[in-house]
């Protein structure tokens, strides 16, 4: 087991390095390959209204004329130990981990990300708890009662949940539950859990439920399909023949065998949400990573976009690592 964990940790480190190289290449190398110049890249750091002289000076000071491997080495050094940005009017410090410096807002990107990570983390964690609990439970019950009224109703609701986009269900829920009935808080009222847990939950309950409705429908259908497959396996019939209680057969044999694809998709979904639930945050006016990325795109602020991209990649890799470790618990065969 220890050897398996070490292998997965080493693979995660290598994957993070590869992701950083690919991400850096997308933002710095690809524009050059398709005909862009170092000056055009510099304009994303100084804004659209900058003069030609300012762009030229920024290009030199940021090293955009250096070979791409030198630029990557300088960027990686900034992530590890921090760096300085000389934009002509002065020198700005960017402490480690320096994921970039926005010359439009005159702020390092990492502190801004730290301010918004709790919002996205709260949204993703709460919604994930709801959609896994309800999605898996409904999927198991539907599989055990195949063809029943409950099964047909649950799968119909699941189909609607998968089909309806989050910006539609979110606005409908806001209009009905927040503005008409007054049961939930309107958007844009995030309160840190450390300040007031009750207000934190009250402000997040509607985004949680709205986001979980989309994912729980998907998980219900996936769980149902997995349970229908595993409950017909020979080892499940053998467990019943041994006289084991039905609850034990369903949970320890049927559900455990169906958990592998659920864990896979859960790791990817959670990692993507931790990288920024763009539509949900925009719908409910939550200042998370998704909204931060949208603001960076609108302002053509490249360091912000790249910072969110790298943060999202980190969360996805870490979520995949956790899933790999959980595989060893669910299925001991993967430890070999």
Notes on the protein architecture:
With 336 residues, the chain is mainly alpha-helical. It has two domains: 2-98, no CATH class; 110-335, MetI-like (MetI-like fold, Orthogonal Bundle). The protein is 74% helix and 4% strand. It contains 13 helices and four strands. The protein has helices at residues 2-33, 38-46, 52-61, 68-81, 109-144, 149-163, 166-180, 197-230, 234-241, 246-274, 278-283, 289-298, 302-330; strands spanning 83-86, 91-94, 101-102, 107-108. The strands form two sheets. It has a two-stranded antiparallel sheet with strand order 1-2. It has a two-stranded antiparallel sheet with strand order 3-4. A hairpin with a 4-residue loop joins strand 1 and strand 2. The longest helix has 36 residues, at 109-144. The protein is globular, with a radius of gyration of 24 Å. The model has no long low-confidence stretch (mean pLDDT 83).
Biggest β-sheet: strands ordered side by side in the sheet: 1-2
Alpha-beta content class: mainly alpha
Summarize model confidence as the mean pLDDT: 83
- Shape verdict: globular
The assigned CATH architecture of the largest domain is Orthogonal Bundle
Rounded to the nearest angstrom, the radius of gyration is 24 Å
| Fold-level CATH name of the largest domain | MetI-like fold
Please provide the ordered H/E string of secondary-structure elements. HHHHEEEEHHHHHHHHH
Sheet with the most strands, sense and barrel status:
2 strands, antiparallel
Strand content: under 5%
Helix residue percentage:
over 70%
Please tell me the total number of domains: 2
């Amino acid at each position: 087991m220890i050897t398996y964990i070490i292998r997965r940790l080493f693979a995660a480190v290598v994957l993070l390095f590869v992701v950083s190289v690919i991400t850096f290449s997308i933002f710095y190398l690809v524009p050059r390959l398709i005909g862009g110049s170092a000056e055009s890249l510099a304009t994303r750091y100084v804004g659209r209204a900058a003069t030609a002289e300012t762009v030229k000076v920024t290009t030199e000071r940021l090293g955009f004329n250096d070979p791409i491997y030198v630029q990557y080495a300088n960027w990686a050094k900034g992530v590890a130990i921090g760096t300085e940005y000389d934009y002509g009017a002065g020198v700005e410090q960017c402490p480690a981990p320096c994921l970039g410096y926005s010359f439009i807002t005159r702020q390092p990107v990492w502190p801004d990300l730290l301010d918004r990570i709790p919002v996205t983390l709260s949204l993703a964690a709460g919604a994930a708890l709801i959609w896994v609990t309800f999605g898996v439970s409904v999927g198991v019950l539907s599989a055990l009662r195949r063809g029943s009224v409950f099964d047909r109703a649950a799968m119909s609701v699941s189909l609607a949940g998968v089909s309806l986009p989050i910006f539609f269900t979110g606005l409908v829920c806001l209009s009905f539950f927040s503005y008409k009935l007054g049961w939930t808080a309107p958007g844009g009222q995030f309160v840190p859990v450390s300040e007031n847990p009750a207000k934190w939950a009250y402000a997040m309950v509607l985004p949680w439920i709205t986001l979980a409705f989309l994912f729980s429908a998907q998980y219900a259908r996936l769980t149902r399909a997995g349970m229908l497959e595993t409950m017909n396996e020979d080892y499940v019939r053998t467990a019943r023949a041994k006289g084991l209680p039905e609850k034990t057969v369903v949970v320890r044999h049927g559900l455990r065998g169906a958990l592998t694809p659920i864990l896979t998709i859960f790791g990817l979904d959670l990692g993507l949400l931790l990288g920024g639930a763009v539509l949900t945050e925009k719908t409910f006016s939550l200042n998370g990573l998704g909204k931060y990325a949208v603001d960076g795109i609108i302002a053509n602020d490249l360091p912000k976009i790249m910072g969110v991209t790298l943060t999202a990649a980190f969360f996805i890799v870490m979520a995949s690592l956790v899933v790999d470790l959980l595989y060893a618990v669910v299925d001991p065969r993967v430890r070999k």
